[in-house]
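hey so u asked for the seq, here:
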Amino acid sequence: MILENMGKLVPGIKVGHYTNLQAVTGLTVVLCPQGAVAGVEVRGSAPGTRETDLLAPGNLVERVNAVLLTGGSAFGLDAAGGVMRYLEEKGIGFEAGLARVPIVPAAVIFDLGIGDPKTRPGQEEGYKACLTAEEEFEEGSVGAGTGATVGKVLGMAQATKGGLGASRRQVGGLVVSALAVVNAMGDVVDAQTGKTLAGPRGEKGFLNTTKILEQIARKPPPFNTTLGVVVTNARLSREQAHKLAQRGQDGLTQTIRPAHTPWDGDAVFALSLGEEKGDMALLGALAAEVMAEAVRRAIKTARGLGGVPAAGEAAI
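ran it, structure tokens below
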């Protein structure tokens, strides 16, 4: 059973968090020790990533051993070294003859505008997150979602707390799941109802980021980026995993408005491990659906930190 404010992806995948509530930052590691075929789609114009070129179809390494999502902007990429150390100790990685090299793609959010900008996740924090990894994991203002915020077009003073959310769908034996770290410049909207769940806070409710962009000349602060991981137990090729990551990005556009701005580095990874057969049309539709729901859950499970209230706590 999946508990309230708890997520689960697919069997064989474990998720671990490191959370620093004082500095308001953290990281999340998605462990797949047995290896997973992976793809990635980066659509934001301000990405901070590591090892994403390796995932392109046609390159040598077929499988990854973990994906790291972290706060700390580009500084946080250093935490991947701690994840690699943990995996190396377990004898996990790409067999390179003289050593097994753990394959750990990573991406960052910019969370330096909340909490202590001088404290960022590093190698020790990456290692610690691996030690906490379980198949069932906490959602909300934890891990990489600790310092996440949304609705920042008018600055941090009117922002709303973001977080980390997850969602899962099963059709027969086929499972498609998603994890999202929501740190968007734009608003988070329920696509089915049109209701704004979070955005810049005004006196009488959430304001519309797109309308604000139409009216102001100054550029928004660069404190953004939404990250995601789509995971399935369907057996996919590298090319199909890349397509699944694209459909995960489509889920972001359904609920984040606007997404993929010049001030966001939005990136979505896709992981395939298992032997289930799945039609790509169905898999893609489910990937977009669960990613959109993971974004909404990130907002609904978030709590206020660093002086930024969550949507349910905002006095508007």
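The domain at 6-301 is CATH 3.60.70.12 (L-amino peptidase D-ALA esterase/amidase). The chain has one domain: 6-301.
lmk if thats what u needed
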